[in-house]
Amino acid sequence: PTLNLQIGCRYITQLVNGVEGHLYGNSTVKADLKNAHAFSMMMILTTFGLFKNEYPLTGNFTFEHIQNVEYSEYRTIHWSSNLYFEIPWNKFKKILGDKIWCDYEKLCAYP
């Protein structure tokens, strides 16, 4: 998986843990508000499965490849953005599937 997807997984896992803590009475938190700009929003939206280019981005792109990149930060998201969605909780978790509860310690471990 891409680095954006893996980092976004950590964010989504924190979100799920917070919501479930509230739903099951393990938390007194009433709202979980997060501040994000384009860079961090891109990771979250990538985790949701958005912004998939036709081919992987590599360091040896030709100028033509660069011009044809469909999804990039400056084309897809503003510097300050809001994300809101309303969906039944079980459906949300089913859609995200294995993108929740990623092993963040393994991701960030020094080799």
UniProtKB/TrEMBL annotation:
Domain of life: Eukaryota
InterPro entries named among the record's database cross-references: His_PPase_superfam
Official protein name in the record: 5287_t:CDS:1
Organism: Funneliformis caledonium
